[in-house]
Specification:
The chain is built from eleven helices and 18 strands. Strands 3, 5, 6, 9, 10, 17 and 18 form a seven-stranded mixed β-sheet that branches. The longest helix is centred in the middle third of the chain and has 21 residues. The protein is globular, with a radius of gyration of 20 Å. It binds zinc ion (ZN) (2 copies).
């Protein structure tokens, strides 16, 4: 029997998502059917709506999600019905050029199929009532009551973490905490600067705290977000509208500059101060993104002196290892997630919530499904 469910469908950029009843495809052997219980509205979804990230359409967006396993394909071994899971958007083949070099985020299958917005077995997993095939953003498509993903993308976590908080681990929190834990090399005497205090930046602040950085400087243009960053572990807040970011980094580090600078602002203006604020030999990690055709300029002198710059998409995530670890950190009180949720909404309010994200009014809106 075909499963029908409600989902938000984007038909073209710069248009509202439409709530439609769509039909699920039959499960392939290594698929799992997930009943989505919570999905976060991430900036990447907004970039697709606003046309700076280009994907084929009609498409179901949503890639930061948690839910319950409802059904498993015959080849599924690790998961069973009723498992609580967080979804990973980085399925990978495990044996291509990049997988062999420990870079699943560059997996050739992942990048090829991701651009086509197909699921990882190369097929679409849902149709509109008209029969038209739907695309899925980032191998998930979680803005609906259900989604079908590969077994490797659904990571079982302790059932005591609430779904609305668990879903954040699937993208924003993994990316920010992972930048500090997995990408940058942060020592206990280090000064870390985090530029941009949205969900990803606030997670990076917490990651820097979890690895024991001595000083954590949070930078934003919103005093409310800076105050939240300080509750999450930042030792100083810098409002970039009022204060010089590079000068603040030097003040906190005997004039050298920060050992590590993590950028999580996603605006062209935020990349330039990262290389100004880092010390010679220091590390810069860029997490934000802008339109791929936009240009960014730097002062050449700021790029010299053995500085290392790395762009990271998913905080070097190893979801099977990291998602349960982050869920436990939340349950043990070491990772703050409640404070990242500005509002919980129903699926029907999705367009208003994207407007609020566009205007910088929210950290995270989370759709909850009954
Ligand atoms: Zn995301
Ligand atoms: Zn691969």
């Amino acid at each position: 029997m075909t499963l029908h469910y409600r989902a938000a469908v984007l038909h073209r950029p710069h248009s509202p998502l439409q709530i439609e009843t769509i039909a699920a495809a039959p499960l392939a052997p290594s698929d799992v059917l997930v009943r989505v219980r919570a999905a976060g509205l991430c900036h990447t979804d907004l970039e697709v709506i606003d046309g700076s990230l280009r994907y084929p359409m009609p498409i179901v967006l949503g890639h930061e999600a948690a839910g319950v396993i409802e059904e498993v394909g015959p080849a599924v071994r690790r998961l069973k019905k009723r498992d609580h899971v967080i979804l990973s958007w980085n399925p990978h083949c495990g044996h291509c050029y990049y997988c062999d070099r420990g870079l699943p985020i560059l997996c050739e299958d992942y990048l090829g199929k991701g651009a086509q917005a197909l699921q990882f077995d190369g097929s679409s997993k849902a149709r509109r009532a008209s029969g038209e095939e739907l695309k899925h953003l980032m191998f998930i498509g979680a803005f609906g009551e259900y989604c079908i993903v590969q077994e490797q993308q659904a990571i079982a976590v302790p059932p005591d973490i609430p779904f609305d908080r668990a879903c954040l681990i699937g993208c924003g929190v993994m990316t920010g905490v992972g930048a500090a834990l997995n990408v940058a090399h942060i020592g206990r005497a280090d000064t870390v600067m985090v530029i941009g205090c949205g969900a990803v930046g606030l997670a990076a602040v917490q990651g820097a705290r979890l690895v024991g950085a001595a000083k954590i400087i949070a930078v934003d243009i919103d005093d409310g977000k800076l105050e939240l960053a300080q509750r999450m572990g930042a030792t100083r807040g810098v409002n970039a509208k009022r204060d010089d970011v590079a000068a603040a980094a030097k003040q906190e580090s005997s004039g050298r500059g920060a050992d590590v600078v993590i950028e999580a602002a996603g605006s062209a203006a935020a990349f330039r101060p990262t290389v100004e604020a880092v010390r010679p030999g220091g590390e810069v990690v860029w997490l934000g993104k802008i339109d791929v055709n936009d240009e960014v300029s730097f002062r050449w002198g700021a790029l010299m002196q053995e500085k290392r710059i790395r762009r990271s998409s998913y905080g070097d995530a190893r979801p099977a290892r990291d998602f349960p670890m982050l869920a436990r950190a939340y349950l043990e009180g070491r990772l703050m997630l409640d404070e990242l949720i500005t509002q919980r909404i129903r699926l029907d309010a999705i367009n208003e919530a994207f407007s609020a994200l566009r205007e910088g009014k929210v950290i995270r809106s989370v759709i909850t499904f009954g």
